[in-house]
């Protein structure tokens, strides 16, 4: 199935954008339309707006609808590294190359398929036919740990913590070039790319995005960093590191065209996650070591640096 692009020319004046689109997209709920707007899939005169924007006469409104096939989710006996589990939630490791939830041609072998096999109950707040239990995501070619909600109480609590930016999320990344400073903060808004709607970019009217980073090790032509998310925008670390001319190694979307190493994806790993348990109120933090392919390349870079 292909994504659908709809274009409307407004003949109205003063109506909220979400209400205007509800009249055009009758099969969508208002909350679904608001989600489309907030995710950057709606442009007004080629600019992102918020749902409260008042439509003006002659406005050109573009809507990108990312198609998803009808749900036929099935449980699959896929190996799953469950780091922690109780009655309310779980913390699991997602390997590089695994898609988090089904969409557009990826109906099998996703993390959701594995969750359905390993857990008897999952939350059903966030698109239950596609994303049961999924509170947040990481990219297909990013490895690392994720929180999974096993009921709606836990889901609401974890989602609220994410919205309030109180969840601790730390990543390890290998980036191109040598970062001179020891640490830094990137505070640049992220939204849909004007030139390629399937990519994200730094855009003036995008959603605020903040990444804190610090240098862990330097090699001859690369730097190993820890990146801590203050916000959680789509592709945030990858877009932010590209914006300061230090893209993530192995990133085929935002990285350099000619990669030095043969890799299956970007060297970005969600190493740490910390949150308040929804039921007990206890702070919990989990860590997961770097995958072997990541550690092997670091060792290779260390040896190359020593030879110089």
What is the count of DSSP helices, taking H or I runs of 4+ residues? 6
- Helicity level, as a percent range? 10-25%
Report Rg. 21 Å
Q: Please outline the major beta sheet.
A: 9 strands, mixed
Q: Give average pLDDT, whole number.
A: 91
**How many DSSP E strands?**
15
Ends distance: 52 Å
Identify low-pLDDT runs. none
Order of helices and strands: EHHEEEEEHEHEEEEEEHEEH
Shape estimate: globular
Strand content: 25-35%
Q: What class would the helix/strand composition place it in?
A: alpha+beta
What would you say about this model in short?
The chain contains 6 helices and 15 strands. It is an alpha+beta fold.
Detailed description of the structure:
- By secondary structure, the chain is α+β, with helices and mostly antiparallel strands.
- Helix content is 20%, strand content 28%.
- The chain contains six helices and 15 strands.
- It has helices at 17-24, 30-38, 111-118, 152-163, 236-243, 292-307; strands at 4-9, 42-44, 47-48, 60-65, 81-85, 89-94, 143-149, 168-176, 183-187, 190-192, 200-202, 210-218, 222-229, 268-276, 283-287.
- Strands 5, 6, 7, 8, 9, 12, 13, 14 and 15 form a nine-stranded mixed sheet that branches.
- It starts with a strand and ends with a helix.
